[in-house]
Design brief:
By secondary structure, the chain is mainly α. Helix content is 63%, strand content 0%. It is elongated and about 90 Å long. The termini are far apart.
């Protein structure tokens, strides 16, 4: 899988577009005094969704890909929580909140389907996932003693 293939992954494209909408249509409604709190949290969570899908896509083992998709799904849920909070505080208009909630739920369903596909396909199952380590017995460290005379033959 290459970076060029990422734009063919529909769930990543939709997550990236969703993040752009969060930046352009949600964040501007938040008050300036929320810049370092709610605004920052929304921006980081929005960026996290496509970034984690991309990182998983770049992994060789399907379990790594699934793990990063779970992180993306968590960030999507985090965004929904922040938007609900912003809506209840009166920062985010109902129309935008409802539209963004529908879009988030749709992306969440697509992400769940992608996770299910990854689990079924088991791509890279012969590779060692990054969560596992390969253990080898260490070789003893041998060094020459510079004060010792070389053996004579």
């Amino acid at each position: 899988m290459t970076v060029m293939n990422l734009d063919k992954l529909d769930v990543w494209v939709r997550a990236k577009d969703f993040a752009v909408v969060v930046y352009k249509e949600v964040v501007p409604h938040l008050p300036a005094d929320e810049k370092w709190n709610l605004t920052s949290q929304l921006k980081r969570a929005a960026q996290s969704i496509p970034a984690n899908i991309a990182e998983g896509h770049g992994r060789f083992h399907y379990l790594d890909n699934v793990r990063f998709c779970y992180i993306a799904r968590g960030s999507l849920t985090e965004i929904q929580s922040h938007m609900a909070f912003a809506n209840e505080l009166g920062y985010l208009p109902d129309e935008i909140y409802k539209r963004m909630t529908v879009q988030a739920e749709s992306i969440g369903k697509q992400l769940n389907n992608y996770i299910a596909y990854l689990k079924r396909s088991k791509q890279g199952e012969k590779e060692v996932p990054s969560a596992y380590t390969i253990r080898e017995e260490p070789e003893p460290y041998i060094f020459d003693d510079p004060t010792e005379e070389p053996p004579s033959h």
